[in-house]
Amino acid sequence: MIAVMATVSVDFSGSHVFVSGGTSGINLGIAEGFAAAGATLTVSSRSPERVDAAVQRLRGHGGEVFGLPADVRDYEATAGVLEQAHAQHGPIDVLVCGAAGNFPALATQMSANAFKSVVDIDLQGTYHVLRAAHPLLRTPGASVLAVSAPQAFLPMLAQSHVCAAKAGVEMLVRTLALEWGGAGIRVNAVVPGAIEDTGGMDRLAPTEQAQELVRGSVPMGRLGAGADIANGCLLLASPLAAYVTGTVLPVDGGWSLGGAQSALHELVTRAASGA
Ligand code: COA
Fold this sequence. Notes:
7-stranded parallel β-sheet, single chain, 275 residues
């Protein structure tokens, strides 16, 4: 007989959730999802103003929220924020590595430093957060989530830097799932699709016509909401996923099955031609 858990809780009361990059866009939506589920939060990003605004907003859910600025490219600063978060709220139950950067540029039309900037933020920065957080995670039981992108597995025009960095992030997730599984730490990734009302989508599809093109490329026929990504993270961090590690979960209405690539190529080509 297989024992099946009768009730499932998405109650994160008493859990400490740390979200890097958690002060805007998709990552703020993830932080809000955990705040609404009762978690104690720490958020961090480069901008002190965004950190302050996010802390105020997240406190509206009634829980304790702490925030400090740091650039994930700076290992010492990142480790310092994680240590202060640990001193403030105790061991980290859920670590979300969300900080990322992106701009569209063909490989030969960006500088070596431009390519390095995105790799440093997305890949090296994710490693910095993981490396510095490791001794501060609750063991056993911690859940680590990296925020990836369809670029990790779909080659895309004008995204060589992001494709390389996010592919690296997904392999980092799989290798750390191997290395940390014995200590009871699960490591997974979510792949957000086209999410409405984010800076990324506003830059990518600034007109209603462009948004319609994106919407039409999503098999489920709608853009995602921030809450969709938060729910994917809550699922992977919850007891429902207690035996799930090293996996990459697209939360995208089917966009990464192919539509993402064609829609983004069309938008990048239009932008490059000034259309
Ligand atoms: N095309 C080509 N090169 C670009 C570029 C673009 N659109 N934007 C930045 N670069 C280059 C810069 O010229 C610089 O290279 P250089 O020193 O050879 O001139 C390098 O990238 C670093 O740029 P900088 O402005 O110093 O950026 P940063 O290190 O402060 O931040 C990003 C890098 C990616 C965060 C920044 O480009 C950015 O703000 N992007 C949009 C916001 C964003 O990514 N939000 C996250 C959503 S996923």
